[in-house]
Amino acid sequence: MSLVLVIASRDDWPTDRVVKVLADRGVPVFRMDTSEFPKDLTLAGRIDARRGWAGALASPHRVIDLADVTAVYYRAPRAWDFPRGMSDAERRFAAAQARAGLGGVLSALDCRWVSHPASMSRAEYKPIQLAAARESGLTIPPTLITNHTDAVREFASDIDGPLICKPVASPVFIENDELKVVYTRRLTVRDLDDLRGVDTTAHLFQAWIDKAHEVRLTVAGDRLLAAEIHAGSGKAHVDWRSDYRSLTYRATETPPDIEAAVRRLMARLRLRFGALDFIVSPSGEWTFLEVNPCGQWDWIQHATGLPIAQAIADELQGVPA
To answer: pTM of the predicted model, to two decimals?
Structure first.
């Protein structure tokens, strides 16, 4: 039996799209969220000298044999949900055991992954991404990561042009039960004269790259699906995430040299899915910004008609590009 295991939050609608494509094709799917363990999800995995990991993974409605899993779609599951009454110390201990036990057994499955959590975790580091992109032949912006104000001023002097500042890690945080986003910011002369706060943590600074537009390149297995993103406001021109309403989109082609370099990058990072962001200059040159191993793609598919869900399903099934 061939079966696709889907590990994702139950309310993740892009995952719903992929599951529907697989279901329409008649592919058996077992969907789970790590928050369901241990209350609504049980594991009994076994391994011995004769064969690899097998045994039962069970929800209240279904039981599967781990040996039947031929592919795993891994996409942002939620945190463990343990019974009430446990102390903080007990919860931390239980979480560590669940991660090593359930997470360890699933991670050990020898099958097709989109993508393996170990690869995704490593690839989330922007310094690793930038080094891998450079080694793969992609153009990257001159970049500084620092908590030292003098280093910022020296970098600005070397660049001799505008700089931007953006988070090194996820730009999203919660304060007073409110979701907040730290957007990319183009620095002014006044900003460089007053760098208070730089010494509080790591900051990422880059040279500003003149842009005609940006490209979101979604990679699913061997398929590259590119969409131009055109900013309709000054805010969006600096960071398109800051003003979605002003954006327009158009499906586009990836230049052959960029396509070849992206394939090398994905191989270096051991990713089978990624949402890559590029700046395209007025002269048509592509500059790599970052790759999100778990990037959003549903709105791009809706705006452009690019068959991203189908491409992910193809990769899970091993359908050649």
So the answer is: 0.93
CA distance 31 to 71: 12
Give the model's pLDDT for residue 174. 67
| Amino acid found at 184 | T
Please give the Cα distance from 260 to 184 (Å, whole number).
28
In order of start, what are the domains of the chain with their CATH numbers? 3-114 (3.40.50), 143-207 (no CATH), 210-306 (3.30.470.20)
Question: pLDDT of 30-52, one tens digit each?
Answer: 999 999 999 999 999 999 999 88
**Residue-wise pLDDT tens digits, 132-191:** 999 999 999 999 999 999 999 999 999 989 999 999 988 776 666 676 778 888 998 888
Interatomic CA distance for residues 174 and 151, integer angstroms = 30
Are 291 and 262 in contact by the 8 Å Cβ rule? The answer is no
Three-state secondary structure readout of the chain: CCEEEEEECCCCHHHHHHHHHHHHCCCCEEEECHHHCCCCCEEEEECCCCCCCEEEEECCCCEEEHHHEEEEEEECCCCCCCCCCCCHHHHHHHHHHHHHHHHHHHHCCCCEEECCHHHHHHHCCHHHHHHHHHHCCCCCCCEEEECCHHHHHHHHHHHCCCEEEECCCCCEEEECCEEEECCCEECCHHHHHCCCCHHHCCEEEEECCCCCEEEEEEEECCEEEEEEEECCCHHHHHCHHHCHHHCEEEEECCCHHHHHHHHHHHHHHCCCEEEEEEEECCCCCEEEEEEECCCCCHHHHHHHCCCHHHHHHHHHHCCCC
